[in-house]
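Here is the promised in-class demo. Please do not try to memorize the tokens; focus on the logic of going from shape to residues.
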């Protein structure tokens, strides 16, 4: 099993194979499944992602039972149609896709955790805009997900991917870095360039706290996935342009782990600090759960 980004990059160079292929071969060996079975499993994940993106941005959208989130992917869709966007239509569509997915999650719909349900919108935010911009076929999109999973596996094995243990940097931060790395490969970049994109994306969100209002994965989680998607695309572009992170990817993961372990409990998904601890956040919790403010 690949336990570092460095080992993935070295194997890719040595075997002249993309990271997506390396992780497919590893999964075949570890799961004792056929290549077709492994591939079909990832195709199913892609289908789930696509369905969530569509559901969240169609009609009036979806709404959570708490009323904290919902309908904003549709607002982004309408905004794109009627305005000259400030950050460009592609970026705004990525935001729309990310929000749509997380709104479906908040509404108890079916999503694909990448790497967690709280960060489930970041990869869809990236992959479906790249499908349009790069005219990706089904095989390329499935490979995107395998590449992302390779980087996510290393993070999970060497640090953490749960907000409860490492803050939102471990969730949206990891998802954003995974998306950046996969975006580079699908755009034709090599493994080292994917590693640079990963490192930049994770570095950009280092220290991001987990402070869900009322302890629910809604506020500010939904919109943080939008930022994660945008960050991934920006990091991928910088890496493809030849920019480097200077701090190697594996060291960035180690730093994320150290930062995560140093965060106080109030900022690790307990719903006590950060935005959750503001007067409005506390009032929302009281309204939802019937508690005295």
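The designed amino acids, position by position:
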């Amino acid at each position: 099993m690949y336990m570092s980004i460095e080992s993935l990059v070295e194997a890719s160079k040595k075997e002249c194979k993309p990271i997506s292929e390396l992780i497919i071969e590893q999964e075949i060996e570890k799961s004792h499944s056929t290549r077709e079975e492994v591939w079909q499993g990832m195709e199913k994940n892609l289908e789930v992602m696509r369905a969530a993106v569509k559901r969240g941005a169609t009609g009036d959208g979806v709404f959570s039972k708490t009323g904290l989130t919902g309908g904003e992917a549709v607002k982004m869709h309408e905004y794109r149609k009627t305005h000259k966007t400030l950050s460009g239509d592609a970026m705004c569509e990525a935001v729309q896709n990310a929000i749509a997915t997380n709104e479906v999650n908040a509404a108890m719909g079916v999503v694909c955790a990448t790497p967690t349900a709280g960060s489930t919108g970041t990869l869809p935010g990236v992959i479906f805009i790249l499908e349009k911009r790069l005219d990706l076929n089904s095989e390329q999109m499935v490979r995107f997900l395998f590449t992302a999973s390779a980087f996510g596996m290393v993070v999970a094995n060497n640090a953490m991917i749960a907000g409860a243990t490492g803050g939102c940097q471990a969730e949206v931060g990891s998802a954003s870095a995974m998306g950046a790395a996969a975006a580079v490969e699908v755009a034709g970049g090599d493994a080292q360039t994917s590693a640079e994109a990963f490192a930049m994306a994770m570095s950009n969100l280092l220290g991001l706290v987990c402070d869900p209002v009322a302890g629910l994965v809604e506020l500010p989680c939904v919109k943080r996935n939008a930022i994660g998607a945008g960050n991934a695309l920006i990091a991928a572009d910088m890496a493809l342009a030849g920019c480097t992170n200077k701090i190697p990817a594996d060291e960035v993961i180690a730093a994320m782990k150290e930062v995560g372990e140093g965060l106080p409990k109030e900022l690790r998904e307990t719903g006590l600090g950060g935005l959750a601890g503001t007067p409005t956040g506390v009032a929302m919790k009281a309204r939802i759960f019937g508690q005295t403010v």
